[in-house]
Amino acid sequence: MTYKTRHGLRGMLAAGAMALAATIPLKAQAETTYNLALLSDFSGPYADIMPTLASSREAVFDWWNATSGQKLGVKLNYKNYETRYDAAQVASLWPGIKSELDPIAVVGLGGPDVAALSERLPEDKIPMFMATAAYGYAWQSDAWIFNPRPTYSHESAGFLSWMREQRGGDEPLKVAILASEASPAYVDMAKGLELYAEEHPEELDLVEIIYTEVQPTDLTAQMRRVARAGAEALIVQTNTSIVVAAKRGLQANGADIPIMMSSHNGLPASGGALGGLDQLEGDYEAYGMAVAADEDTPARQFYETLAADYGLEAPWNVVTAMGISQGLYTVAVIGHAIEENGAEGLTGEKVREALFAQPITAEETQGFLPTLTFTPDAPFPLKGLQVNVGTVKDGKITIEATGVDVPDVKKW
């Protein structure tokens, strides 16, 4: 082979390589990966809903990787860690999680995560994004743990204000609360509403706060007291086990007192534990995100996209909505951080800065959440707070009210 031939062959190979490179997508040429740590509970009090919640948020990360992430040249890797919904377990696992993943964000589950990591995350400069409502003990400035919803007490106060308006009259609404001292979050749910009732006796008459076990066997006697006190609503924002025991206790006493649940222990999960949604006819769930009912909404349409194209097998219910909403506002903030800083060198600190830099619009969260405007003053948005209310009618979940304004709940 002559020099001229060899030179020509090299030129042909080079030209072919350039042509091939031109046909390779940008993602294949250069992709930056970042890690997310997902805190989960597959064996503790939320084991009944965790598969649905986990698969929902994971489907969002897969969707983002295939759409926005591909365009940006970024892929989000994620890994679940079993915490058993226990603060000591979270604290024990955290050093290993940080060392293994070096995550740019943590995707949390509940109160034990907040209790265990509220002082660690500012030192490690890694933000944590929750799906749940917030907690009073975490209501402080310069937080590193963020909730898309206000506190549980905000949400229950909004619901009770709406319920009193529906009832009519000037008398305060008589209310009982079921909580548990087993978790700081459960205690917090009661304390905030207790203070609100004390400051607004013309609106709420808190007849009793009952503290019970995380998985009580029988609450018949306690529900008898609640019924005799004339309670018009029972607030249970803890877990499905307590809802089941409360409902059985009410039924045993022939008491028709509506229960208000949150998202993580809402109508589908608690109804399933009771043997069917018909057991919760006339009961409620209320929270600051979309209600997973049969109506054709943007949220429902996005869920169907995840189910059709990204392998989501979870049913359309409030737990699925909670997981999807958590994933969506997490990737929205990460997307903002990439737009601001570029795909390379993203850190947890830059992700947190992006949270404050611009609102997360309702469009970005596909209608699962209202437009969220975070400031360093609190770990959740402080303005424009609203809740949506779902109920069971004829054995089906329906939207009872949307955009219910939340009253001014003072910090406790």
From TrEMBL:
UniProt entry tagged with the keyword Nuclease: no
Keywords: Plasmid, Signal
Stretches assigned to coiled coil: none
Keyword Signal: yes
Gene3D superfamilies: 3.40.50.2300
Domain of life: Bacteria
InterPro entries on file: Leu-bd (IPR028081), Peripla_BP_I (IPR028082)
Annotated signal sequence range: 1-30
Any Pfam family the entry gives: Peripla_BP_6
Residue span, Leucine-binding protein domain: 34-360
Family indicated by similarity: Belongs to the leucine-binding protein family.
Listed name of the protein: Leucine-binding protein domain-containing protein
